[in-house]
Design goal:
Rossmann fold; five-stranded mixed beta sheet; homodimer; 433 residues; nine-stranded mixed beta sheet; elongated; 17 strands; alpha+beta; 39% helix; BirA Bifunctional Protein, domain 2
């Protein structure tokens, strides 16, 4: 009776929550001129080991398919992005601004904020080396968070630059083979006792701690910060050279978004990966690139803990879930008339429900309330008039059924929702005769 | 460089097509009072063998996970529905009207209209035995097709009743063990030479052919047809006792939707399965139920072959994909001013893009056209005025940049799209300072 461990059933309320999150992600991404794409849920396992090494297999839902192919359920979308961009390089003018909302899978120990599947908003800019692209991407991350009702008191995006540290390590003549070790020690420094970090850093401990404590000089980060300030986002971001991100392929600006309280895992993270597409496409295509991902699980936790965001979500979901009209069939002789009217109302885009079998009138009104209907329209003794009741105000009135669709009071009550349908959701085709 | 055989990459245009189909499915289902739910992509393999027998495994993407569980990527959603409904039986008032848009997976030989993954709209009514539920479900199927612009000349829903045939077989004293064989022979009769069907049907061939040729008497189907006629759908449906559907668990009314030309596979199919939930929940819950599914692949083929439907889709996609505003930065000194304005426009919900690096003005206008922008706003020599150009009409005018957001001509050009955002997609939070 249970889903597999780490997997979720989405009952109607969970599904509405999921769709609310997707809708905001999509809307903000579109405002920024990003277009949506997607890849397959199943890919050759080699696509992932090529990027992350053979160790990744321990975390994959991988298997051999009936055609003897080694395949895996996608743990992330970036390798697919590199594959698709390399395969279609000539078809698209650069820079690409692409986003996607894949479901991703990892066989991991379950913890708070971490399941075995999650949905992940991904945005990437491909083919643009300028720091303006980094700014655009970080601004998108901030606006995604703002769209859920979070303020600068709720969230912060911490920004750093790998290149700053690479320059530092070069200046200190550290052999390249040791860079990754030092970068990972910096990445972990916030979560480890200082002595432990110090022993990892060795002779570089002193200058590195100085930078972590007092900040470092970076013209690139200054420019980036000024540009975010210009967009009105200064409060939402913070330069923090302690952010390095564990993955070896990041090559420039990196960033992570957190709740201000610091109680949760990262809400989002990403950065510039200028060499990855070349590596993953075996040198077929070389393009500067950057991107980030935001998962649905930690985000959902923070929404639940933030009253303004929670209220905003609940109102949007109610508006999305609620019926417009519940048709009360008080006399079974009127069922056929009611059904013809229901069809006309639905043809106009209204959300209409009714009892599929004879039911007491009181029960029907109960159902109307439970389904969040705005209006009840009663077909009964008043025929050929129908009784229209506003379930919010309690107002009711009789309307000749032939006039129902032209009755301005009735229809204006519903207009808010109906007009709110975007054109591609409206069905203007006439009712078939 | 290729996805796995039978799997699709969704480049931006493919993704927009997919989302267009999903949007219409969702919108029509909501009009009918159905609410959305979903289940996991991965389930225990036993969930599927319990419903379909061990033979199904040959068609599954199944494997043993790292916790030694036998698991499979879902080939369909109905077993998950039975699991979820049984687990949460007491939480929801019946009847349930639930829909979902799962991606489903089958390891099959690829053919036209059949890949190894597809998306499938599923709608089910749980807990309602009345034939009105069958009518509601068939009407939903018709309206889903109408929403894509199909008319009764493009599509037809063929309706039959398993119970009619069961009664027939009982009347003819056929042992129950042979029912399924006869039903499958009827199901195949349309696609096989009559002699072959006759030999399968044996002594029942004559009366069965009579019914297939001349029709049979069914009060239930007459009532169902009258009710669909009452909803204005007579032209879209046809009683056809030759439809039986292969699966053993159907227990009552069954139906399939086809293109009128009969060139494609079924667009949709389903029916009543009153005993399945009891069987799948090991008797824990017994509920009458009915449902149908409509896949995205055959539907997409028919849209592509039907000019009206194709045009409708292309217009909706263009409207969804196109930018509102492309900001042309003619002088780099104006970049910061332009960016501040871009942020304000995006905060109001407009879709705005701009060049991330310095670019010739002509190239920028090219980009604006390629991205489908409605307006170009040029920041250059005219500062502190900006030049607003309507890219559809060619009209242009100068507006003081401080007045841009209040300029009624400019904003009314865009109003159509901005107001069309449903409330749960609008972001009304103020711009951060």
């Amino acid at each position: 009776m249970q889903p597999l461990p780490g997997f979720r059933d989405f009952l109607p309320n969970d599904c509405a929550t999921r769709n609310y999150v997707f809708a905001r992600w999509r809307e903000v991404a579109r405002r920024y001129g990003f277009v949506e794409w997607d890849g397959p849920v199943l890919e050759p396992t080699a696509l992932y080991t090529k990027k992350s090494g053979p160790e990744i297999v321990a975390q994959l839902f991988n298997f051999i398919d009936k055609g003897d192919r080694e395949v895996a359920m996608r743990p992330e979308l970036t390798p697919t992005l590199a594959r698709v961009v390399a395969a279609h390089d000539r078809e698209f003018k650069k820079p690409l601004k692409w986003f996607s909302i894949p479901q991703c899978f990892r066989y991991e120990k379950q913890q708070r904020g971490r399941l075995r599947e999650h949905y992940q908003f991904n945005a990437d800019v491909i083919g643009e080396a300028s720091v303006e692209a980094d700014v655009e991407l970080i601004a998108l991350c901030v606006d995604l968070l703002r769209a859920f009702g979070f303020t600068a008191e709720d969230v912060v995006v911490r920004i750093s630059d790998r290149e700053f540290w690479i320059d530092f390590l070069r200046t200190h003549n550290l052999p390249e083979a040791q860079w990754q070790e030092i970068l990972q020690a910096i990445d972990k420094s916030e979560r480890e006792p200082r002595e432990k970090t110090a022993s990892r850093l060795g002779p570089l401990a002193e200058p590195i701690f100085k930078i972590l404590d007092e900040g470092g000089q970076s013209e690139k980060l200054d420019r980036l910060l000024a540009s975010l300030k210009n967009r009105g986002m200064a409060e939402f971001v913070k330069i923090d050279l302690g952010i390095v991100r564990g993955l070896a392929y990041y090559s420039g600006v990196v960033f992570e978004a957190f709740d201000r309280g610091g109680k949760l895992r990262a809400l989002a993270g990403g950065g510039r990966y200028d060499n990855l597409i070349q590596q993953l496409s075996d040198g077929a295509v070389s393009l500067p690139a950057l991107g980030f991902a935001m998962g649905d699980v930690v985000l959902g936790e923070l929404i639940g803990e933030t009253p303004v965001a929670k209220k905003k979500m609940e109102e949007a979901i109610a508006d999305h879930q609620n019926l417009d009209i519940y048709v009360v069939i008080a006399k079974e002789e009127r069922r056929a008339d009611a059904l013809a009217q229901i069809q006309s109302l639905r043809d106009r885009g209204h959300r209409v429900d009714f009892p599929l079998t004879p039911m007491k009138v009181g029960k029907q009104f109960q159902a109307a309330e439970q389904l969040g209907a705005r209006l009840a329209i009663l077909f009964g003794d008043e025929w050929p008039q129908v009784k229209v009741k506003d379930l919010k105000t309690g107002d009711q009135k009789l309307v000749p059924q032939t006039e129902l669709l032209n009755d301005s009071t009735t229809m204006s009550t519903l207009r808010g929702r109906t007009n709110s349908l975007p054109p591609d959701l409206r069905d203007s085709s006439p009712r078939p005769e």
